[in-house]
Amino acid sequence: MLENDTFSRVGTNHQISANTYNLILGAVLLWGFAVNWYLVTTVPAEVMLAIPPILFFVGYFVMAMSGIAIIFRSQEPMYSFLGYNLIVVPIGLLLVVVLPKYSHEHIVQAVQTTILLTAGMMILGTVFPAFFKRIESSLFIALVVSIVVELGQALLFGTHLAAIDYIVAAVFCGYIGVDWGRANQIERTVDNAIDSAAALYLDIINLFLRILRIMSKK
Question: How far is the CA of 104 from the CAs of 33, 44, 165, in angstroms?
Fold first, then answer.
């Protein structure tokens, strides 16, 4: 989920073909996941855990928000790709810390489930773009309420309601349909392909993390 003016660029000024557009979008997505995989397999978790938590999260949010700001403002592919990487790298470093807490079996199962759900939601987003556009506001409200409830439980009671993971996973499934449907409604340009990939990347990563939590609890 990533909000910028990309999805308002609706028109007929297509600079590239549909096949090229989807190829670039897919390649950018795969690049992000490849960077994450490289970081997870090469950076020791001990190195990241040695960083003071406050410093880590400040750095995380500064990089990620800088990347989002660049994507917001840029219509140049090179700058948008830079912004995309500023999002991908801190998330990859976060995964370095998070994934060792889970078994290899659960991680593989979560990856497989995420791939299947993503493919399914992309198909639905292609077939029913108007439906996903209508439910976008409801998805946003559900996500905000879920996050508030989750934070309240953690801070006030030190607990976590398992149902929240299912709700948030469902919300991000919906966002994949929303963002994929919108990606196919806007002008086909290289910059729009990169921006759309960034939105989908965040949807998919968030979905993966929630599925991983659900499976580990089973």
Answer: 17, 16, 20
Candidates 85, 186, 89; CA nearest to 129 is 186
Query: For the stretch 120-141, what's the b/e string if a residue is b when 16 or more beta carbons lie within 10 angstroms of its beta carbon?
Result: ebbebbeeebeebbeebeebbe
CB atoms within 10 A of CB 201: 23
Using CA atoms, how far apart are residues 7 and 182, in angstroms rounded to an integer? 6
The encoded tokens of residue 6 equal 């990309």
> What pTM was estimated for this model as a whole?
0.91
Can you give the pLDDT at residue 161?
73
Contact between residue 202 and residue 2 where contact means Cβ atoms under 8 Å apart? yes
d(CA 10, CA 31): 26
